Amino acid sequence: MPMTAQAFVPGHITGVFRIFDEKKNPLECGSIGAGFSVEIGTLTTVSAIEQESLEITTIYNDENIDANVTKAVVRRLVEKYERKFKVIVTHKSSLPSGVGFGASGAGALGTALALGHLLDPTLSKSAAAEHAHCAEIENRTGLGDVIAQTIGGIEIRTHPGGPGIGKVVNIPDETQKVVLAGATGLKTRDVLTNPDNRAKINSIGDALVSRIIHDPSLETFISCSREFTGYIGLSTKRIDAALKDLDNSGLDQSSMVMLGDSVFCFCNDNQSQIAINILTKYWTTSQIQVTSISKEGGRLVSW
Questions:
Q1: What is the pLDDT of residue 69?
Q2: What is the pLDDT of residues 45-81, one digit of tens each?
Q3: Which CATH class is domain 1-303?
Q4: Interacting residues of 175 by C-beta distance below 8 A, sequence separation 6+
Q5: DSSP letters along 263-299, please?
Q6: Is 115 within 8 Å of 70 (Cβ atoms)?
Q7: Measured between alpha carbons, how far is 90 from 250 in angstroms, rounded to an integer?
């Protein structure tokens, strides 16, 4: 009989960041920045049965896909423990891929938590998460999602690096709802490898993150996210138009999602329908989700 374990990891949205990826050790790479975890996320089931060679199958929302980051996590863990398995990783997710909602990090962390537990029940969450972070860095699919998704809440990543090296503090949260609208368009890998984009991001990222650290409030996070969005010049016409419409309706606790053709809007229960009505002018209904802040980070749910 195969061994099985399940983990749930919340989605994650970044509003502002600064790249640190020059070190050789991927655990020392990452980003500083600020963002928040959301209650929509990914439930990952890992099934493993010992055999003579490693075989990995990855399924995302009932579709067999070549999930490079998930596979990288599996390879790292089985090599560490010098074991060989037939591994089936099944992701059931509310997070669309490639829109900036942390789908890659959620899948990587869920795989690390579930498979890590099967290989070593004493493995800490932080130690498992290191493998997910390294897989993201090596595939250039994310910088700070995993460490944020390990902790949950609205977070400031004050020092770069993976779990155990990077440092995170939380911003007090009194928000009720988050409305998200997202589409594919920006590829994280393309942005992170483009010299012009990197230069713009890093030239303003330090100052804005420093401002949030010194005034850790939702208002500062939003204003810095907006300033960051305007400066780096990656927003699409629909992002600009949607944010203007939200502002004009008094829903100004909103900004662009890093990195996607996507926006987020903090609001109360009564305002959420207004936000949805505005955003459906620019995104389809299926591209809009209403959720809330996840106070809890990724965790095992069955084993």
A1: 96
A2: 999 999 999 999 999 999 999 999 999 999 999 999 9
A3: alpha beta
A4: 154, 218, 253, 266, 267, 292, 293
A5: EEEEE-HHHHHHHHHHHTTTS-GGGEEEE-B-SS--E
A6: no
A7: 41
